[in-house]
Design a protein that fits this description.
The chain is mainly alpha-helical. The protein folds into two domains: 6-86, Outer Surface Protein A, domain 3 (Alpha-Beta Complex); 96-312, Heme oxygenase-like (Heme Oxygenase, Chain A, Up-down Bundle). Helix content is 62%, strand content 7%. The chain contains 16 helices and five strands. It has a three-stranded antiparallel beta sheet with strand order 2-3-4, covered by helices on one side. The protein has a two-stranded antiparallel ribbon with strand order 1-5. A hairpin with a 2-residue loop joins β3 and β4 (28-32). The longest helix has 29 residues, at 284-312. The radius of gyration is 21 Å and the shape is globular.
């Protein structure tokens, strides 16, 4: 989780509803259900203590009526819905971890909360994405992992002190994911040459060009945007579930599933938090620049999803996309 002093987001409201606690944030309701209703009052007290002044250990020790593992589970649920911020001292500069959580809040709660999920994501969640769209998304993910190598070497070369070991660990986790996805795509009957020579969609290019640029020129923006590329467990799992509905080769399914499991098991979505946690403070000008770049990435990602639907619903030059000869 990486959060050291959990704080419930300041615009949140808590209320009881039957045997549940409901947290309302930005007009969205999040329910906490209880196997043991007797733990509801203690959990309500715990939520009221999430003011950013107590560590996780202090909360676990001081919350009567809840075991430490129950406190940890509740915090994990809140964090999974981006409802927690990092506490600090009034008037102090914003810490790197607090800023990372602010970026997640902007991306998932404020921007996506206003615009909603993309049509592509909705189609996957609703089980309405066609076979070609799902396979096409697999090809675009392959292209992203291939282009990722353009970013990985610069970040190791440019990072120093405590950041370099973290960067190396991240690179080792990410290294050769393209080979895993290549093996998956080969199971569809395409040749290696056809897959390697295929063309990513324009906005797949655009998204990866942004990341490649920041890896060479703006490490703070690069680190701050990494969480977007790791996605969330729910969309990855929904993608795998829908793939299983179609008559696809087992090796294709296995490769896509292993890639999803690696991302989930590695807690990759928290990589921005981990890297930013090494910064005691981040200045106002740097914050503004990173937020501006994250917004640019957000818009490009949504256009990329639109690209995937528009092309793979009716793939005019086939799958994989190849230049006419």
């Amino acid at each position: 989780m990486h959060i050291t002093r959990p704080m419930l987001r300041s615009d949140s409201a808590i209320r009881r509803l039957d045997d549940c606690l409901v947290i309302t944030y930005l007009d969205e309701d999040y329910e906490i259900e209880f196997d043991d209703p007797a733990s509801l009052p203690a959990t309500e007290i715990l939520l009221g203590r999430l003011d950013g002044t107590r560590t996780v250990d202090e909360l676990s020790q001081d919350t009567a009526g809840l075991r430490p593992e129950q406190v940890a589970s509740t915090l994990s649920i809140l964090d999974g819905n981006f409802l927690l911020a990092e506490g600090g001292h009034a008037g102090a500069p914003i810490s790197g971890l607090a800023f990372a959580l602010h970026l997640e809040d902007l991306y998932y709660n404020r921007w996506m909360g206003r615009d909603g999920e993309t049509e592509l994501v909705r189609a996957v969640f609703d089980g309405q994405a066609s076979r070609d769209v799902l396979i096409g998304w697999g090809f675009e993910c392959y292209h992203v992992t291939t282009r990722a190598h353009d970013c990985l070497a610069p970040i190791i070369a440019r990072m120093h002190d405590g950041l370099k070991p973290l960067a190396i660990d991240y690179v080792l986790d990410e290294y050769r994911h393209d080979k895993l996805l290549m093996k998956s795509l080969l199971a569809l009957g395409h040749t290696r040459e056809a897959i390697e020579g295929s063309l990513p969609l324009p906005y797949t290019h655009a998204v990866m060009n942004l990341l490649a640029r920041w890896s060479n020129t703006d490490l703070l923006s690069f680190m701050g945007c990494l969480f977007v590329f790791e996605g969330t467990r729910d969309i990855g799992d929904a993608y795998i579930r829908q793939l299983e509905q179609y008559d696809l080769p087992p090796e294709f399914l296995r490769g896509q599933s292993v890639h999803n499991d690696v991302n989930n098991a590695g807690d990759h979505g928290a990589v921005s938090r981990l890297l930013y946690s090494r910064f005691p403070s981040i200045g106002v000008d740097d914050q503004a620049r990173v937020i501006r770049n994250l917004r640019m990435l957000y818009d490009a990602q949504r256009r990329k999803h639109r690209n995937v639907l528009d092309y793979y619903r009716a793939p005019t030059i086939g799958i994989p996309r190849m230049l006419p000869r």
